Amino acid sequence: MKCLVFDFGGSSVKYGIVDDQARLIFTDKLPAPLGSAEAFVQTIKGQYERYETEVDGIALSLPGIVDSETGFHHGSGAYSQILKEKNVIELVSQACGAKTAVENDGKCGALSEAWTGALSDVTDGAVLILGTGVGGGVIIDKKIHRGLNFSAGEFSFTLTKFNGYTITDEAWVNMGIVGMTYKLCKWKNLDLSVQDAGDTLIKYDKLLKADYPVHEQSPQKIKINGKQIFKWIEEGDPDAQRVYEEFLKSAVMLIHNIQTCFAPAKIIIGGGLSRVERLIPDINMELKQFYAKCCIPDTLHANLQKSRYLEECNLLGAMYSFMDRYGR
Length: 328
Prior knowledge:
Elements: E1 2-8, E2 12-19, E3 24-31, H1 37-51, E4 58-62, E5 72-73, H2 80-83, E6 86-87, H3 88-96, E7 100-104, H4 105-116, E8 125-130, E9 134-140, E10 143-144, H5 171-175, H6 177-188, H7 198-208, H8 226-235, H9 238-262, E11 266-270, H10 279-294, E12 304-306, H11 313-326
Parallel strand pairs: 1-4, 4-7, 8-11, 11-12
Antiparallel strand pairs: 1-2, 2-3, 5-6, 8-9, 9-10
Helix pairs in contact: 1-3, 4-11, 6-9, 8-9, 9-10
């Protein structure tokens, strides 16, 4: 069995073909279709028409509150404005004439690791997907934990600092690429509109700009991404160092809270940022300092590991979700 799989992010869409042995046949990227539900469906249909004869169906990984059984998207995430209260399975299956499955992106990441990845040898675990935002999932007794309103694992909304109960306290601002990009644009006076997810950055600027300096000069039309951010960090750029320090402190708070709430055998780091070689060693060093200063007993220390599938984990998890829905 093979599926055409899609992982819809805030700035781009990864897609490819995955088989029932967790083998990724190929993968590629497209721009994120954030403008309308029609554009969203057409992105899928355009690729399905190319690969229809090679696959048995379509599997989707989506940010937001997703009911994987009914297919309804209940809001939140980058696609909320175009998909909220729409049945994604019906939209796609009617347009393409194909069996379709959909699951929350963070839960896809957790499913991939529980299936054949870094959590396959444990009963309980958690996954943090560090990409555009902060996704994740919790595995309990080898099964995905969905929770009330399918919202378990929505780590983007956890509070990782305190600034008077504002949006700047949330994990996605401090740990996701979109939040880190926003911060660096404000510190360095870079144009928000030329960035990936520029419309999203401009929208959030109305809520966040009071915390950042006002520059006299016009913003520079320089586009940055995760590679550029970590290049600046390696070079010792003070603005990038400040943003990375906030990232590390936020990561420690989130990881410690997951560990104390769920006591997973492992916490797996996936998503695009998991490819950064220094990331997990830096987080572990920060955790070590935190444990020592706060006298945290060894029994509450997190076992942090890298995802087996890195930024492809959601594609593999979408395939697992398809098999869970339709059988092998």
